[in-house]
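re: ur msg from earlier - yeah i can do the fe (ii) ion complex, just paste it... oh wait u already did. ok heres what im feeding in:
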Amino acid sequence: MKVDQKIQDLIRDRNTQVPTLPVIVEKILSMAQEENTSAKILAELISKDPAIANKILRLSNSAYYGMMKEIDSIPRAITIIGFNEVVSLTIGMSVVSAFSRKDAGKNFNMKGLWIHSLGCAFASRNIAKKLGILQSEQIFISGLLHDMGKIIFAIYFTDEYAAVLSHAKENETELYRAERLILGINHATLTGMLMEQWNFPEMIHVPARDHHSVEDSPSRYQKLALIVAFSDYLSQKAEFGDSWTIKVPVITRIREELGISRDEADEMVERLKEQKDEIEAFFEVMK
Ligand SMILES: [Fe+2]
Ligand SMILES: [Fe+2]
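and the outut:
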């Protein structure tokens, strides 16, 4: 059986070890799509899960937000940090911690990949805000989870994936091309499949799925896919964590399509570098 068929089976089979989405995320995803969701309902939902509530409070008080006063309750976190931010933190954190308990073997720097992904998430949010795009929190999640397929490969197809990495290294080729060649499917497609299986809204899963194929992305999500692709690049340029990639894709066209100048891109890299310690600390709480 070809690996891509096995992968599809792995994702679609409820009895396998692929992490199922934590219940709280399912609830938050469906709640976030309703119109009249109140901060009170969100706070109640989060407070029912003490481990998650505790992490949200620690993240709210982390250096990244630089609050003067301690945020000591979930309703306060929602008021001060924001409703949508708390939603995306809860979703992101639940997925990150669902995977961080799994073992991918010593070849794969899992922490490095998540820090790369956090860099992409924060950059995506910054760009969306700069471009006046309303879905800055949805894109934070797309950015955070964009390379989740690599983690699936590393955990469930450890040996095959080690071969993909060496192929990419020897041939100095982009990782997603080596994956496609050897496994028949690339990590971005796999990320999209898993997010779809988990019922993430299209607006979140399509930009993640298309981060290596922006030109094929449906027009209504193309801009979001461009942002994730560009932020992926920025995170690598700022040397955030480890994306397991040998060759960083050329992004000139992507940058131009977003209307970002070369100088602005350099500034974005510098800004990310300044946030490095704070974002690394973020991961320590999230995992
Ligand atoms: Fe990628
Ligand atoms: Fe990436």
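cool cool. Residues 3-19+105-286 form a domain with the Hypothetical protein af1432 fold (CATH 1.10.3210.10). ping me if u need the other ligands too
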